[in-house]
Amino acid sequence: MIKENNGESPMLQLVSFNKLLNHYDEQLKSTDESLAARAKYVLDAQAPYPELREGFDDLSILEERKDVISIILADTFSQVLTNNEIKTASIPYANLVFNSSKRFQKVIEDAGEGYELEMRNMPDDMHYMIQCTVILSFYYGFNLDFKRPLFYDIPDKNGVIRHYRILYNADFMEITPTEKAKDLKQSDVDELLENFEDLELWKEKIPPNSFITKGFVISNLFDVTAEHSISQIKSSLIGSNKRGSENFMEDFQSTFSSLFSLNGINVGFAGYDPNTNRFLKIHGKGIESYLLKGQEMESCDTMLCDYSYGKLLKESTYYAISNVEKYYKKSEGKVQPYKNLYEQGIKSAILAPIADEGNLLGVLELVSTKVNELNSINANKLVDVMPFIVSAVLRSIEEEQNLIDAIIQHECTTVHSSVYWKFQEEAKRFMTDQLSGNQPAFKEIVFKDVYPLYGQIDIKDSSRERNLAIQRDLMIQLSEIYSVVNEAWKKFKLPIYDELMFRVNDYLEEIRETLHTNSEQAIFDFVQEEINPVFHHLKREDKKLKELILSYESKIDAETESYYDHRRNYDESVMEINKKLAAMLDKKQLAAQEMFPHYFERYKTDGVEHNMYIGSQIANDRNFDSLYLNNLRLWQLQIMVEMENKHYALKPNLPIQLDVASLMLVYSTPLAIRFRMDEKRFDVDGTYNARYEIIKKRIDKSYVKGTNERLTQKGKLAIVYSQKKDEKEYLRYVKFLKSKGYFTNNIEIVELEGLQGVTGLKAIRAEILYKTDEKSTKTYTYDDLMEELKL
Hints:
six-stranded antiparallel β-sheet, disordered N terminus, alpha+beta, 23 strands, 791 residues, nine-stranded mixed β-sheet, flat
C-alpha cells in the first residue's frame, strides 16, 4: 500500500500512467509516422499490464514492471539531459521516487549509504491539510492559494548540506470522489479558512479516504543552496540577543559551509573600537576571534600587516589569504595576522570588513584548515551576505547602547517604577510636540499631596572608626619607614638619615595622640616627596636595604599608594553592611509595592537610607486611602527591625565588628515632590516643605533634651515625630510588633533638644529583640493589626 506518511490521508493514492498513455493514444492517430510508431511502441509495451492504466497501490508492481514504466516515461526523461536535470517521477507530497534522471541518482549516491529522502517541514498534520487544499481547488473549484515551497535537504559527498527546491508537474494526475466525499458550500470553506490548525475540523469536512487520486507527478529539483544560505544568514541575524543563543554560532557556521560548499570552515568575529583603533573580543556563546587568538583586545597596528591593514581599514574590502603558511614563513613567523592564524592550525582565511559607509564596525573571519580552500575567488560569495551582517551589527550596537542606557537608568537615577508612567506620559507628549514641528520641552514632574516616610540604618560612630583605622595604618607605615631609615643610618652614618628618623618619629608622636584633619595628607606628601626618593636611592646602594624596602613596598596598596590594611577592613565592613542591608530592603520593597504603589528610593552612605512617598497622584489609576499610609508605616517599622536583625547575624563575620543605629522620621503633613532634572532625583518642592528636609538631615545628630546622650543608640530603633496623634499611632504599632517578637518591654518616650530652626520633636525609642536564627519573619499588614485589636 502507498503510505506517504504515518498519518491518515484524505486521498487514496494510486499510481497510474493513464493520462500520459492517453497522450500516446492521440499520437497513434498522427500523420507523423515517427510519432505514431513511437506511440505504438509505448502502447504495445503497456498493453499486457492493464493495472498501469487502471492504477495500483501495491508498490511491488513498480519494481516488477520497471522496464515497461521506463519505456512509458522515456519521453519525459530525456537521455540527452539525464546527466544535467535533477528529475524524478513520484507521488505528490511523498518521499516515494520510482523513476529518476542519472543526476538525481548521483545526488542520492553522494548522500551516502542509509540516507532516506524526506521533505523539509512536512509533518503529518500539515500533510493532511495540504492535500485537502488540493482537493478544494481541483475538485470543488474553490480558488485557494495552497502552494508552498517544498525542499529536500541532502548532504553532498563532503557532508555539506545542499538544498533543492521541488517543482511539481501535475499534468498526469486525476482526482475522483468516493462515497465518503461530502458536498461543501462556501460557508464550509470559510470555516476551514479560519481554522487551518484544527485537524479534526478538516477531517470532518473532508474525511479520510474520501477521494481517489490516480497518476503521478514529475518533480524537477533545483539546487538553491546559495540562495537558501543567504536567506538563512539573513534569518539568523534578524531579532535581538542572537549572540546569546546556544546554537547561534553552530548554525551560522553550518550555513556558511553550505554557502561555500565547504565542510569544516569556521566563522569568527572581532569588534572594532574606532576611538582606540583596536580589535575587541565579542562576548557571546561560541563566538571566537581567530585574529585575536583569545585576547580581549589588541591594536589593529599590531594585529595586521601594512597590506591587510590597508585592505580592511582603508579600502573596506576583504582580504583573502589562500596559503597562510607561505606568508608565515615569508615573514619569518613575526608578522600578523599570519602568526596567530598559523599557530591555530589555520591554512587559509578570508577577513571581511563589516563596515557602514566606510566606517569599520568589525571583522568577519572565515578560516579553514586546508590550503587554498578559502581564496580571493570564493571570497566574492560574501558580497550577497555582507549587507545583512552590517545591518545586524548596527542593530546590535544600537541594542547594546540601549541596554547600557537602561542599566545607567536603573543603577544611577531614581526614576522608580511607581512613577515611570508619569515619565512615559511626558515623553510621549514631548515626541508629539517634536513630530508636530513644535519646540519640545520636557516639563518638570511634580506629585502633590504625598506623605513622606524616611528611615536610616547608620553605622555607629563611623567617623571615629574610620579615623581609628587611618591612624593605625599610618602608625604602622611610619614604623616600617623608621626601621628602614634606621638601618640606613647604621650602615652609612649620614646625618640626613638621622634627621629623617627624627621627622618620622615626630609624625608618629603627633598622630599617636590625635589624628588631625590634615595629618593624613601631610604624611602622604612627606612619604611621596622625601621618603620614596631616598628609598629609590637606597635600593641601588645596598642589597640588604633593598630587601627591607621591597618588603615595605609589598605592603603598600597600589591604588592608594599608602599602607591600607585597617582601612581596607573598615571599608570592606562598611561595604558588606551596605550591600546586605540594601539588598534586603530592595527585595522586601517589591512586596510593599504590591500592597499599594508608592515612590521609593534607597541610597548608601555610611549605612543605608531610604525615602518613600505615597499618595493618590503617584498611584495613578488607584484610589488612595489613609489605610495604605498606615499600612506602609507599619511595614517600614517591621523592615527596619528585620534589617537590624540582618546586621546582627552579619556582624560576627565582618573584618571590623561595626555597630549600627536605626532611625525613622514620622511626618504627617502631606507635601509635594519635584523631579530635579539636573540632579536626576526627586526632592521636596517649595519653601514650606523644606522644613521636612531640614529635620531629616539633622535628627541623627540630635540629643535627648537635658542630657549628653545621643538619640540614636545601638540596639534601639528611634521613631521621631512632632504630633501627639503620631505618637499614639506608633505606640500602637510597637505594642503590636512587641507581641510578635520584634521588641522587648524596654520602650521609652524622649524629648529632643531643639535643632537649628526646628523645635518640639519627640521620639519613641524601642529596644529591638534580636533573633538567633535567620528565618524569614512574616510581614504583618495593617489589617492584621486591626484584627488583633478586635480580640
